[in-house]
Amino acid sequence: MARRKRLILAEFVVTVREDHVDWGGAESFLWRLLNAKPAGGFLPQLRAIRRREDRRPVPSK
Asked: Cα separation of 19 and 17, whole Å?
């Protein structure tokens, strides 16, 4: 079975014009990301990911 990776989108550009909003070609991905509402909210997930990243060992030289 394929292993899944979590991806956090840190920043993106949205151009708002008079007649439309330009998402830069990632409309469907951003739409799902912005409209998904996890049960616990986004902040607990981000904190859990940050804790995992902080526990990673630093490679020695």
From this structure: 6
pTM of the model: 0.26
- Of the candidates 31, 19, 18, the one whose C-alpha atom is nearest the C-alpha of residue 9 is 31
| Token pair listed for 5 | 């990776």
Residue 59 is assigned to a structural domain of this protein: no
The model's confidence at residue 10, banded by pLDDT at 50, 70 and 90, is low
pLDDT greater than 60 at residue 28: no
Nearest-angstrom CA–CA distance, 14 and 22: 6
Domain count, the chain: 1
Q: Tokens 């998402």 map to which residue?
A: 23
Q: Are 42 and 56 spatial neighbours (Cβ–Cβ below 8 Å)?
A: no
Residue 27 lies in a domain: yes
Q: Which domain holds residue 49?
A: 15-54
